[in-house]
Amino acid sequence: MSIAQIKNLQRRLANLEQEAVAEVNRACGHELWQSLGFDALDAIDDADRRARANFYYGQLQTARELIDVIG
Questions:
Q1: What three-state secondary structure class fits 48?
Q2: By Cβ atoms counted within 10 A, which residue in 15, 17, 57, 69 is the most buried?
Q3: Residue 19 in contact with residue 63, Cβ under 8 Å?
Q4: Cβ neighbours of residue 25 under 8 Å, at least 6 residues apart?
Q5: Is the Cβ–Cβ distance between 59 and 16 less than 8 Å?
Q6: Are 20 and 59 in contact (CB under 8 A)?
Q7: CA distances for 52 relative to 1, 6, 29, 32, 65, angstroms
Q8: What does the domain layout of the chain look like in residue ranges?
Q9: Is-contact 57 41, C-beta < 8 A?
Q10: With helix as H, strand as E and coil as C, how does 4-25 read?
Q11: CA 28 to CA 40: how far, in whole Å?
Q12: Sign, CA torsion 29/31/34/40
């Protein structure tokens, strides 16, 4: 990969990470999940919001893992 491609990928992953954090915040209604971890998502009463939070949490974890690998 060229340097430009890596920089573009890093930017796109950062955007995915920000979107995922915003969506989990929206689904939870707060930012406490960031300090409590994944278990806080299971406490959401509404099944649709819980499913959305879990989906975006998975997206967030994937983006963070790729960011760590790329550097």
A1: helix
A2: 57
A3: no
A4: 31, 33
A5: yes
A6: yes
A7: 33, 29, 12, 16, 20
A8: 3-70
A9: yes
A10: HHHHHHHHHHHHHHHHHHHHHH
A11: 8
A12: negative
Cβ atoms within 10 Å, residue 70: 12
Tokens (6 digits) for 5 = 């491609």
Q: Which candidate, 7, 65, 9, 61, places its Cα nearest to that of 34?
A: 61
* Residue 24 confidence (pLDDT): 95
Q: How far apart are CA 30 and CA 70, in angstroms?
A: 30
Token duo for residue 64: 């963070």
pLDDT of residue 32: 85
Furthest CA-CA distance within the chain: 46
